[in-house]
Amino acid sequence: MAYCGGDNAEFSKGDPVTAQSFVVESERVLGKGGVVSSGSAYLESVVVGATDYATHKRWSIRGVSTPDKYTLVIHLTKPEPFF
């Protein structure tokens, strides 16, 4: 859970919400730490490089970047309504 408030957004435990927070969560969903989430199929099918990350062919998700602390860029393989 996150509380939004511009650059003052924070998670319920008080940690700041940044673009990197979303990168870390995407990596977790795709199996970082050895546990694959049921949500991985959603990311793998539409985020550029997600399958390569999930299958350990790359160390990062090619289609996800953070040009600055509060900007998250996600490149999709195709248009997807849930994004």
Structural description of this entry:
The chain has 83 residues and is α+β, with helices and mostly antiparallel strands. The chain has three helices and four strands; from the N terminus they run ββαααββ. A hairpin with a 6-residue loop joins strand 1 and strand 2 (10-11). The radius of gyration is 13 Å and the shape is globular. The model is unreliable at 1-5 (pLDDT under 50).
Widest sheet, order of strands: 1-2
Mean pLDDT: 84
Q: In percent terms, what proportion of residues is strand?
A: 15-25%
The counted number of beta strands is 4
Question: With helices defined by DSSP (H or I, 4 residues minimum), what is the helix count?
Answer: 3
Alpha-beta content class = alpha+beta
Order of secondary-structure elements: EEHHHEE
Measured between the Cα atoms of the first and last residue, the distance is 18 Å
Q: How many strands, which pairing sense, and closed or not: the largest β-sheet?
A: 2 strands, antiparallel
Low-confidence stretches: 1-5
Evaluate the radius of gyration: 13 Å
Tertiary shape: globular
Fraction of residues in helices? 25-40%
Element layout with pairings:
Blueprint: E1 2-3, E2 10-11, H1 19-29, H2 40-46, H3 50-54, E3 64-68, E4 71-74
Antiparallel strand pairs: 1-2, 3-4
